[in-house]
Amino acid sequence: MRKVRSRRSWxxxxxxxxxxMLVAVACGDDDAATTTTAAPATTAAPATTAAPATTAAPAxxxxxxxxxxxxxxxxPVAGQQFAGYYEATFDRINAAGGINGRMVEVIVLDDGSxxxxxxxxxxxxxxxxxxxxxxxxxxxxxxxxxPFVEAEGIPLVGPGAAFSGLIEPVKPxxxxxxxxxxxxxxxxxxxAFEELGPGSAVIVRAxxxxxxxxxxxxxxxxxxxxxxxxxxxxxAIGEPDWGATVIQLQDLQPDYVIMITTGPDMARxxxxxxxxxxQPKAVLGPSPIADQAFIDGAGEIPDGMVFGAVSGTVIAxxxxxxxxxxxxxxxxxxxxxxxxxxxxxxxxxxxLRLLGDEVTREGLLDLLANSFGPFExxxxxxxxxxxxxxxxxxxxxxxxxxxxxxxANAG
Length: 411
Hints:
Layout: H1 2-27, H2 30-42, E1 63-69, H3 76-95, E2 104-110, H4 115-127, E3 133-136, H5 139-152, E4 156-157, E5 174-175, H6 181-196, E6 200-206, H7 212-224, E7 228-235, H8 243-252, E8 256-260, H9 263-275, E9 282-285, H10 292-298, E10 306-311, H11 322-325, H12 336-355, H13 361-370, E11 395-401, E12 404-407
Parallel strand pairs: 1-2, 1-3, 4-5, 6-7, 6-8, 8-9, 9-10
Antiparallel strand pairs: 10-11, 11-12
Helix pairs in contact: 1-2, 3-12, 4-5, 6-7, 9-10, 12-13
């Protein structure tokens, strides 16, 4: 295009010169021709004075955030929702002018629920993409990348994970946004034993080290509430056949089945319980059981039988969650992890706003550790700095009625 513009400019100059020459010849006065053509020649210079427009300060580079999530594999819907709503939040912010004049670029990588892929992804984000901060989704994969993240000192803010090792012990560069699974299990078990009465329980858990303390917390809560912990059954993530597990449940006849695994696994286990005709007093679980992925896969769920902890936010179906839901109107049902994605993104965005023009990792970590908040969204509890690096302790209890999540503890 530049050559075309140059060629057109030369044509216009040649044409003007030719016209002036013909006029001079027609007048028969060579001296006059020289005089009259001199001025136009010198007035061409101002056309080049557009240069100052190119001296504007260059746009600041975007702030890069790396997001590693399980978009495929053991829990794809949850990972897709977390990442999708996280990105959508920053799309809205960028469309409105960014944060303090800077755009935010979210780089998303899929680990397929594989630990080695998750580690390679995070290494790429930190070393090759040179991201400013990280966020992750998936408890097993986040647990696997934690040593690298801690050693690198890069901020990990609001990951979609809730295992105790995230912040126990406290790590200077890692900040959790959702109460831990251990706390969730104590909360939902205490609530159920108070509302429905104590009883016997069997715990079915994913056999991964990051959930050891969660299973123990559930057992301790059962005993402390006056119940009996009959058995803990270990199962692989992505277990395809829950038949043998349900046979064990039939033999033991517990009042409560406590599920601590992924939402899709909980759904398949519940469906197998229905197939075999086993119905306990209640099924309890941490936040994955209060997600749409569980409802979609569990089949028919009797009203008031399933109870789950909802950590950090209201239930995803609440009207208060509309500001997040409206970011992706093409999604038929926003689940719990979509709302978590919005929450994590909004917390990061607020921290970046507070940093102003001095966006440094050191500044971000100091802000989150000492002076962030109180900050609250329509769909969250209060979010603020805490000594244990858990930015909120809000937990609600949800149940399923008419195939939809509702607040169990409303009123």
